[in-house]
Amino acid sequence: MKFSNFFIPTLKENPSDARIVSHILMLKSGMIRQETSGIYSWLPLGYRVLKKIIKIIEDLHELYEVNQILMPTIQSSEIWKKSGRYDTYGKEMLRINDRHSKELLYGPTNEEMITALGKQHIKSYKSLPQYFYHIQSKFRDEIRPRFGVMRAREFLMKDAYSFDINENEGVKTYYRFFRLYLKIFKSMGIPIVPVRALSGEIGGSLSHEFHLIVDSGESEIFLDKSILESDLEKLKDEDLKNLNSFTDEYYKNNKISIKLEKFRSIELGHIFLFGDKYSKSFDFNIEYENKKLTPFMGSYGIGISRIPAAIIEHSSDERGILWPEEVSPFEVVIINLINDSDETNKVSNDLYQNLKSKNIDVIYDDRNERPGIKFSDSDLIGIPIQIIIGKNLINDGNVTLKFRKDGKEINLTNDKVLDIIIKKLKNNK
Ligand code: ATP
Ligand code: MG
Questions:
Q1: What is the pLDDT along the chain (429 residues), one digit of tens a residue?
Q2: In sequence order, what are the residues at sequence separation of 6 or more whose Cβ sits closer than 8 angstroms to the Cβ of residue 71?
Q3: The model's pTM
Q4: Rounded to whole angstroms, what are the CA distances from 424 to 384, 418, 419?
Q5: Angle at CA 404, nearest 5°, toward 190 and 311?
Q6: Residues near ligand 1 with C-beta < 6 Å?
């Protein structure tokens, strides 16, 4: 993409209605636009980040053999009356009447709908386990929508659901998703922390949340700091279960001395093994060895549209955002400092075409703007690798490779840049 064609309504001043860094930077860099309280449009820069996150989630769900579907945002009240949650969900649920006065609602989550789907289509125990997921907007009429997309009313969630033959199998599935979550957040460059959690509204016994530690976070968690350095994917299920448990019974029983410390954090994912709560209320039974089997279920959510904000809270400096390469809106920015030089124009343009042909996600700042503006915009939007093309090229054929995170600069002859960038990005993939 050329910067001159890219729609990026950056702001010079800090927006007055934003209080936390991520909200300020997302508005300032033109990633999002508020439509009304807690409801946002994603503009090109923000949407690119969202799509990178979605792609990581989709690829890894595919690897874990989870079926992708797409359920609607609007649901019928009937299924919610069946589970009993139509009355208990309260004011967070947006209720709508259609022209025939039929009660509908904008889904805050999909346990009921997936159970109805399962009951109609899963007829034999032989087809269990079954795993489904979708990526869909949710609506929750939050009492205090705030911090931009961090706590919105309409937001994008990935929600997965599982059906198993019994509790034993359900537990195995639960840890399968647990491990999938560790992989997903690692692939996004996010140092995630799983913690034992209460199941709340959804019900059930086994539940974990996945948090990112940041001082501005709305959540408070208790954490054994050593897990930040350990490779969680290598742990056994039982050890995963008790990570950062609020009861210290597990540690006592295993004679592990551990000190749980308090941190502030942002919840990015939440998984539940809730058993037969919904299958039972939907009378969803399968014949198994002459007995009735009620499938054992779980649900697994990731707050997709909260993730870009959480990453920014975790990783920014006084000049702007610091994206991890994995989800950055672009991998490379070419900053052409001299717009009226045939030489810099040609080298910039050739490099741009070459990087694109190698499938590298590149933005070329071809605007007729002062260098200062180009530098500050580039720093603001946080692209990890900058290629700066200016006087050096004309004087001695050099361009500058600059890394956004640490400001490190390398001068290279122009013909070497392409190879180095390709090598660096491919190594990280
Ligand atoms: P929270 O405790 O932050 O209110 P929750 O526990 O109600 O979240 P879940 O039902 O577990 O949320 O939903 C799964 C994920 O969706 C959460 O882990 C979170 O990342 C995200 N999420 C929930 N509510 C919102 C919201 N209002 N805006 C943006 N993302 C949200
Ligand atoms: Mg939750």
A1: 999 999 999 999 999 889 999 999 999 999 999 999 999 999 999 999 999 999 999 999 999 999 999 999 999 999 999 999 999 999 999 999 999 999 999 999 999 999 999 999 999 999 999 999 999 999 999 999 999 999 999 999 999 999 999 999 999 999 999 999 999 999 999 999 999 886 565 556 799 999 999 999 999 988 877 777 788 888 888 888 877 768 566 666 666 666 778 899 999 999 999 999 999 999 999 998 889 999 999 999 999 999 999 999 999 999 999 999 999 999 999 999 999 999 999 999 999 999 999 999 999 999 999 999 999 999 999 999 999 999 999 999 999 999 999 999 999 998 899 999 989 888 766
A2: 107, 110, 113, 114, 117, 134, 136
A3: 0.95
A4: 12, 10, 9
A5: 25
A6: 109, 140, 142, 151-152, 155, 157, 267-270, 301, 303, 305-306
Residue nearest to atom 3 of ligand 1 (CA): 267
Span from the CA of 348 to the centroid of ligand 2 (angstroms): 47
Q: Could you name the CATH architecture of 330-428? A: 3-Layer(aba) Sandwich (3.40)
Instruction: Please report which ligand is nearest the Cα atom of 300.
Output: 1
Closest ligand to the CA of 306: 1
Which CATH number does 3-317 carry?
A: 3.30.930.10
CA of 152 to the centre of ligand 1 (A): 9
Q: Where are the domains of the chain?
A: 3-317, 330-428
Q: Which residues pair with 401 in a beta bridge?
A: 387, 410
Distance 285 CA to ligand 1 centre (A): 31
Distance 309 CA to ligand 1 centre (A): 13
